[in-house]
Amino acid sequence: MPEQPKLLIQPGKYYHIYNRGVNCRTIFQDGADYARFLFYVEKYMAPVGKTYAYALPENHFHLLISTYPKEVLPHFLLKDKLVLGRTFGHIQNAYAKYFNHKYKTVSGLFEKGFERKEVTSQSYFTTLVLYLHRNGVKHKLADDIYAYPWSSLQELNNQFRETFLSRQETWAKFGGRASFIAAHDLLDVKLLDMSFEFEEDF
Question: What is the pLDDT at residue 6?
Answer without folding.
Answer: 82
